[in-house]
Structure formats: structure tokens, C-alpha cells
Specification:
Largest sheet: 5 strands, mixed
Helix content: 10-25%
Shape: globular
Number of strands: 9
Distance between the termini: 51 Å
Strand content: 15-25%
Structural class: alpha/beta
Amino acid sequence: MATTHDWLTPPEILQALGAFDMDPCASQHQPWRTAATQYTIEDDGLARDWVGRVWCNPPYGPHAEKFLKRMAEHGNGILLIFARTETRAFQEYCWNRADGMLFMAGRIKFRTPGGGAGGPAGAPSVLVAFGCENVTALRRSHIPGYVVELKNQQHCQTEDLFSAT
């Protein structure tokens, strides 16, 4: 049984994805920035206006779906969740609304409040991208894993050998 619901995204993942404008789920004990504007549980990120490119590592458990729905509605950002592909929320908001996903190789090691090393995650993780810019960020991140592009709201042009430069 987990002793905290406050699991910090390793800074190397954030660095690989580029700068974010907002994080509605930042930790109160966040030793590195996740976005230009960070809201903690006390600020209630769901009640705030979401602007720009959003990073979201939501609280896992029953509240994750609320953030996943909000990200799908916002349409510009990347969300980190467990790759529970069989759930209704994953079916509705990831497979049917996202533009791409990076199924991460192995299990990431979240950080504990304050930045200390934690053990491996309890399940495989996926980075879910909304908006073409964010699918491109997944591809360019070189985070080990496999990117799946989806054709839901918009078609994101993939860079390949035959693309005009």
C-alpha cells in the first residue's frame, strides 16, 4: 500500500519533453519546476483556467480520470498515467481523444516529495499527448519506449525521409 499519492516526475523526463506553460498537479514539495505556472493540491488545478502547453502528472487513483478528461478538453499538453489500456477512462480519453502516446520502456522511478529516489512504479506508464506539437515532443524526447500516433481530432504530420525540409 502506498504511503503517499505525491509521486514526482523525474526531472530528466520533463527536460526531454521541453518547456511547459502550466502544471495543474505540481507537488507542494517540488524541488524542480515542472512548468512556468504550477498549481498544487491547495490551489485546485481543476478549478483553474488551463492555458498554453500543459504538463500533468495527476494524482493516481479515482481522481486521475478528472484530469485526463480536462486535458482532452484542453487539447494541448502531455499527461503521465499508468498504461491501464483496458479501463473505460483510457478507452474514452486516450484511445479516442489523444493524438499520440509514448508507452515507456520498463517502469519509471518516480521521486518522493522533496526529490528523493523512489522505487519502480507499480505498473507500466504512458505519456499521452494532445496536440501535434506534443506528439512531436514525444518523438524527439528519445525517452525509451514506443510512440503510437492516433488520428483523432487532427492529423499530425510525421517527419520521415521523404518530408520536405
